[in-house]
Amino acid sequence: MKLVFKKAGKPNLEVDAAPGARLIDLCDQHRSPVPFSCRGTSCGTCCVRVHEGAALLDDAGDEELNLVEALGYSGDTHRLACTAKLRSGPDAGASARVVLEPENDD
Ligand code: FES
């Protein structure tokens, strides 16, 4: 599957992603436009809007959901890149995409 990072004013960054991969690892490996600070579900810096493929991400836990909602977003549309993972199990296929856009600037 593909993970696509959108950022206004920049070309999309599209990378291959394996089932079960942590978003934070993919961000680090590919120098994504997603900024991080605490890297541990505390600050909200890494909050991303999920434009496509939310079902390909694991379910958010209470800690993540609480922080996303405290930031004024919904867990249906936003995730924390330091916490979320792609679902494990069979690959959804080469055409499957998760499209993310950071809410904060680097
Ligand atoms: S980097 Fe702080 S919540 Fe993700």
Features:
106 residues, alpha+beta, Ubiquitin-like (UB roll)
Shape: globular
Question: What is the terminal-to-terminal distance?
Answer: 26 Å
Computed Rg: 13 Å
CATH superfamily: Beta-grasp domain
Beta strand %: 15-25%
The arrangement of helices and strands along the chain is: EEHEHEE
For this entry, what is the oligomeric state of its chains? single chain
CATH fold-type name? Ubiquitin-like (UB roll)
Q: Which hetero compounds are present in the coordinates?
A: FE2/S2 (inorganic) cluster
How many helical stretches?
2
Low-confidence stretches: none
Class by alpha and beta content: alpha+beta
CATH first level: which class? Alpha Beta
Share of helix, binned: 10-25%
Describe, in plain words, how this protein is organized in 3D.
The protein has helices spanning 23-30, 62-70; strands at 2-5, 13-16, 47-52, 78-80, 97-102. The chain has 106 residues and is of the alpha+beta class. It has a single domain (2-102), classed as Ubiquitin-like (UB roll) (Roll). Strands 2-1-5-3-4 form a five-stranded mixed beta sheet. Bound molecules: FE2/S2 (inorganic) cluster. FE2/S2 (inorganic) cluster (FES) binds next to loops.
Q: Can you summarize this structure?
A:
The protein is an alpha+beta fold.
Layout of helices and strands:
Layout: E1 2-5, E2 13-16, H1 23-30, E3 47-52, H2 62-70, E4 78-80, E5 97-102
Parallel strand pairs: 1-5
Antiparallel strand pairs: 1-2, 3-4, 3-5
FE2/S2 (inorganic) cluster is lined by residues 36-39, 41-46, 80, 82.
